[in-house]
Amino acid sequence: MATEETGGGMTGYIKHHLHHMEVNGLHVDSIAVKVALALFFVVLFLRVARRATAGVPGKLQCFIEMLVEFVDQMVKETFHGRGRLVAPLALTIFCLVFMMNFMDMLPVDLLPGAYQALSAHPHEAYLRVVPTADLNTTLGMAFTVFLLIQYYGIKHKGLATFFGEFLTAPFHAEGVVGKIACAVPNLLLRLIEEAVRPVSLSLRLFGNMYGGELIFILIACMTLGASLSSGLTYVMMPVQFVADFIWTAFHVLVITLQAFIFMMLTIVYLSMAAEHH
């Protein structure tokens, strides 16, 4: 983007890139990207499923089959309860989180710059394309997983046993007095455990992706800062290219690992909810 469009030099450039497109307090850009990626995921998998052959598979079918088998094996090794939807849920979480993370691989000014160029008010044309760098996205996903944990716990144990464990685990004692004495610390520990799960899920993913997005923006500021200060744009361009390449290569591992961790923690939490203590 041009410096005059962002205003305020590098500071204005960074602020512009970190500002969401908002409508009545909603981050419309995060919602639009999430919906678009979800539709792409559904269309792609349906297309592969309908065109799947029993013979030698194509490259795309082979990749999808390997991914499905990998996730299914992870679920079989981790989740020991009853639930046919756990494997599809895990696959959906991994793919969607990875695709949302992968938006960070696009050039910083590609989509925001295109949207700004087409807008009648470029100074107010904000667009962030990494949904997982938005705390609302990660917190919403984590809260959905939290509700699923409660559902699977009640489904496998029943209402009485599920809520009874709030008072009887992890500490257990014989006799009425002992049970009453253990009930309070058990309840406090269980409430803390339940509250930590969505917080840890959401903040881990958000922190990593927000930090990665910010580093890409700072790398993009190398040539911007050089052009504003000393006219060393062409000197800084190779430095920016090398820095961007190194960070991109490293960040590919980060976005994949974060998608895998979110998926695995979801499976583990569901498995823990289904187990009797």
Task: Characterize the structure shown.
The protein is mainly α and 277 residues long. 77% of the residues lie in helices and 1% in strands. The chain has one domain. A hairpin with a 2-residue loop joins strand 1 and strand 2. The chain is globular.
Protein traits:
mainly alpha, two-stranded antiparallel ribbon, about 280 residues, disordered N terminus
Compressed to H and E, one letter per element, the order equals HHEEHHHHHHHH
Low-confidence stretches: 1-6
Q: Report the C-alpha radius of gyration, rounded.
A: 24 Å
Q: What is the total number of structural domains? A: 1
**Percentage of residues in helical conformation:** over 70%
| Order of the strands making up the biggest sheet | 1-2
Biggest β-sheet description: 2 strands, antiparallel
What structural class do helix, strand and pairing data support?
mainly alpha
Q: Quote the average pLDDT.
A: 87
Distance between the termini: 57 Å
Proportion of residues in extended strands: under 5%
Number of strand segments: 2
**Counting H and I runs of at least 4 residues, what is the number of helices?**
10
Q: Identify the overall geometry.
A: globular
Summarize the structure.
This protein has 277 residues and is an all-alpha fold. The protein has one domain. It has helices at 3-6, 9-17, 28-50, 59-78, 86-102, 110-118, 135-157, 159-168, 175-229, 233-274; strands at 22-23, 26-27.
